[in-house]
Amino acid sequence: MLLFLDVDGTLIPFGAEGPYQLYEPARALPQSAGHPLLTRIDPAFGARLTRLAGLGCELVWATTWLDDANTCIAPWLGLPPLPVMDWPDEDDEPGSAPGSGSGFRAGPGPGADLGRPRGLHWKTRPLVSWAAGRPFLWVDDEITDADRDWVAAHHAAPALLHRVDPRHGLTERDFDVLEEWVIPPGSGAPAARRPA
User: Fold this and answer.
1) Mean pLDDT in each 10-residue stretch from start to end of the chain (196 residues)?
2) pTM score, two decimals?
3) Which of 187, 196, 189, 170 is nearest to 1 (CA)?
4) Among residues 49, 126, 139, 136, which one has the least CA distance to residue 95?
5) How many other β-carbons are positioned within 10 Å of the β-carbon of residue 72?
6) What are the start-end ranges of the E strands in the chain?
7) Angle at the Cα of 151 (from 146 to 154), degrees rounded to 5?
8) Contact (Cβ atoms closer than 8 angstroms) between residue 112 and residue 87
9) In what helix (H) or strand (E) does residue 150 lie, and over which residues does it extend?
10) CA–CA gap between residue 186 and residue 165 (Å, rounded)
11) Distance CA 99, CA 88 (A)
């Protein structure tokens, strides 16, 4: 089971009124891990993400931070380097060869809606392609019902698309929801493996 993890608005809160709670690093960090927004991320989230990994989730960065998430955020959280979602170029359709020029617009920016159903997040199709039929959780602050509907229609395996309030970022309640989906109370089996 995959767990696709966004950064901005998910791990790093944005858009709230008033100051954000700031945290100190829980461990010594390499100099390359310095970033001014890291102090908004609760280092205790590393233990919660590690727990989800222990429950069978393969953590994957699903962010425009790309490998900077491994350089800056993974050490802050005490995580090893994680796989990084490789976003297709704007001209490539998910699953097509880079540079094939299919006209699908996957990335953000001008024209990003071309070839994509109205309201569908630009990450949705590439994430489903990466999942390749495997169960997954996607944690992001920009998920909408359009994404949930598209995944339900185009991905046969179980999937949880969990929207995080960007003003607060991930909370303990969000982690509880993720864990409940992976191992529903009383089931003893991960959701992706229990009978439908």
Assistant:
1) 97 90 81 78 95 96 95 94 88 42 36 63 96 97 96 96 96 96 73 44
2) 0.82
3) 189
4) 126
5) 21
6) 2-5, 58-61, 136-140, 159-163
7) 125
8) no
9) helix 145-154
10) 28
11) 9
Dihedral sign computed on CA atoms, order 110, 116, 120, 122: negative
105-115 CB burial, b ≥16 within 10 A, e <16: bbbeeeeeeee
Tokens of 149: 């509907």
Determine the 3-state secondary structure of 20 from DSSP.
coil
Residue holding tokens 């949705």?
A: 124
Q: In 3-state terms, what secondary structure has residue 162?
A: strand
- Give me the amino acid identity at 81: P
Give the number of other Cβ atoms within 10 Å of residue 75's Cβ.
21
Q: In this prediction, what percent of the chain has a pLDDT beyond 90?
A: 62
Place of tokens 């608005």: 9
